[in-house]
């Protein structure tokens, strides 16, 4: 990585699940480097959704290195997620035709309830993970997956955890870590965000800031996708042997099962 930048640069890992992200420093100059980022990054940068993309370089081995401006800022706290800035940025993302066009060009097929259910059912079957609450949830998904028709497909981030929202010291909000982005029903993102961070009595107000209205149909779609995401979390933490996190999401699933819509 240092060979790309030249003499004098200090390069250190920047964390993250993939281990492909780095912080490069030269005096007061800082860059965020990533190996083999998706070409999608250029569109996100142009739309102001992620920090500015400065350059892209292809290595002799075929790897592609991208450099973005390193911003002074911080991740959002859980209690900040119900703010209007979040709703407005997510609305911008979901209404961007350029983002949808780029993912289509990259070969991304729209995510459907059938695709998701089949994947979840396969994973749990192969891993032989059994739990009464999981079985209840999977039955619900199967019984309701054919009642979620929604014509509009947008680019969904699919991991709107508060750790992925970056507020710069200049007050600009970004949504980072787009490796899992898909073309899907906007209820995928909306459900996660509202169920995780916004009190139920504030949903209508939050959705107004986002640019839509609360309906029973939207609620049902959000609920279905949140159940899916919770099952994915339980599956992942179970395989990793992280019992505390598994127990947390099982409790969360229990509450979801009690409030099925």
List the helices and strands and how they pair.
Elements: H1 2-5, E1 10-13, E2 21-26, E3 29-35, H2 40-46, E4 53-58, E5 64-69, E6 73-75, H3 84-94, H4 97-105, H5 113-127, H6 132-144, E7 154-156, E8 165-168, E9 173-175, E10 182-184, H7 187-197, H8 203-210, H9 216-240, H10 243-258
Antiparallel strand pairs: 1-2, 2-3, 3-5, 4-5, 6-8, 7-10, 8-9
Helix pairs in contact: 3-8, 5-9, 6-9, 6-10, 7-9, 9-10
Explain this structure.
- The chain has 261 residues and is of the alpha+beta class.
- The protein has two domains: 2-70, Phosphorylase Kinase, domain 1, CATH 3.30.200; 76-258, Aminoglycoside phosphotransferase (APH), C-terminal lobe (Aminoglycoside 3'-phosphotransferase, Chain: A, domain 2), CATH 3.90.1200.
- It is 46% helix and 17% strand.
- The chain has helices at residues 2-5, 40-46, 84-94, 97-105, 113-127, 132-144, 187-197, 203-210, 216-240, 243-258; strands at residues 10-13, 21-26, 29-35, 53-58, 64-69, 73-75, 154-156, 165-168, 173-175, 182-184.
- It has a five-stranded antiparallel β-sheet, covered by helices on one side. Strands 6-8-9 form a three-stranded antiparallel β-sheet, covered by helices on one side.
- Helix 6 (132-144) runs antiparallel to helix 9, helix 7 packs across helix 9 (216-240) and helix 9 packs antiparallel against helix 10.
- The protein is globular, with a radius of gyration of 20 Å.
- It starts with a helix and ends with a helix.
